[in-house]
C-alpha cells in the first residue's frame, strides 16, 4: 500500500518483501499552458545530497555529477524539457552500499532555467522499492505553486531499525543544489 505523505510526515521503509536495500526516488512534473501558447518548457532538476551524522556534506548527485564517488547513488539523467510520462528524473540509491558515514540523504528539486513553481501543474516525487520489484512505498505531492524556484522534497534517514523517509516540502530559491545548502541544513 502506497503512503501519501504530507510535509513533516515520516514513514519506515518497509515493503511487501521486507526492508529494501535498493530504492529509487522519482520526480515527475508537467508545465502549465500559458496564454494559449502551449506547454511551457520548465527544466526541473532532481539532486541527492549525502550527509554525515554531524551534518557535513559528504557527496552530491545531480545533473553535473550523475553518480556518487562510491557509486551507491546514481542519477538516471537530466530531462531538460519536462516532456514525458511518469518519472522524468530518477535517482537510484543502493542503501546497502552507502558508506557508513552517510546517515541522511536529502532530495531536492530546482528550476534550472529559473522559472517559478507557479508554472508547474503537477509535480510529485515517489519512492520505489527496487529490491523486490517495483513497489511504490511512498509518494509526496509537490504542488506548492508559488514564486519559489526550488523545493527540499524529502529525506532518507538511517536509524538502528532501518531507513525512514520524511516528506519536507520546504520552498527555497536557487537554480542548482549549491544554492539550497543553507536551507537543507535546517532539515537535517
Automatic annotation (TrEMBL):
Per UniProt, residues of the TerD domain are: 1-173
> What InterPro entries does its record include?
Stress/Tellurium_Resist, TerD
Report which superkingdom the organism of origin falls in. Answer: Bacteria
Database matches in Pfam families: TerD (PF02342)
Among CDD domains, the record links this protein to: TerD_like
Identify the Gene3D superfamilies for this entry: sav2460 like domains
The name on file for this protein is Tellurium resistance protein TerZ
Amino acid at each position: 500500500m502506497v503512503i501519501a505523505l504530507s510535509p513533516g510526515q515520516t514513514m519506515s521503509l518497509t515493503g511487501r518483501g521486507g526492508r529494501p536495500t535498493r530504492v529509487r526516488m522519482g520526480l515527475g512534473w508537467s508545465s502549465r499552458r500559458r496564454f494559449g501558447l502551449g506547454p511551457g518548457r520548465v527544466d526541473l532538476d532532481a539532486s541527492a545530497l549525502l550527509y554525515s551524522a554531524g551534518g557535513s556534506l559528504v557527496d552530491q548527485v545531480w545533473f553535473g555529477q550523475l553518480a556518487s564517488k562510491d557509486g551507491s547513488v546514481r542519477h538516471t539523467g537530466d530531462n531538460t524539457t519536462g516532456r514525458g510520462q511518469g518519472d522524468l528524473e530518477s535517482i537510484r540509491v543502493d542503501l546497502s552500499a552507502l558508506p557508513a558515514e552517510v546517515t541522511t540523504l536529502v532530495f531536492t528539486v530546482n528550476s534550472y532555467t529559473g522559472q517559478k513553481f507557479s508554472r508547474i501543474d503537477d509535480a510529485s516525487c515517489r519512492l520505489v522499492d527496487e529490491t523486490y520489484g517495483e513497489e511504490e512505498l511512498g509518494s509526496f505531492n509537490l504542488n506548492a505553486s508559488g514564486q519559489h524556484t526550488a523545493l527540499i522534497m524529502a529525506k532518507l534517514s538511517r536509524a538502528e531499525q532501518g531507513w525512514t523517509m520524511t516528506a519536507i516540502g520546504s520552498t527555497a530559491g536557487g537554480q542548482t543544489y549549491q544554492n539550497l545548502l543553507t536551507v537543507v541544513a535546517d532539515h537535517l
